[in-house]
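Deliverable D5.2: sample structural annotation.
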Amino acid sequence: DLGADSLDIVELLMEIEEEFGQSISDEESERLKTVGDAVKFIGSKL
């Protein structure tokens, strides 16, 4: 668990989208529960 509130998650998703030039759907964002999930997601998009 990231231990983040919903605003933290939205900010993180926006940073990921900007940094990696990838759009993240609401459905995809709901699956990102841990740092490992985020790393796997980013890796799958590159």
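Annotation notes: The chain has one domain: 6-45. The mean pLDDT is 85.
The annotation will be released with the project's public dataset once the embargo ends.
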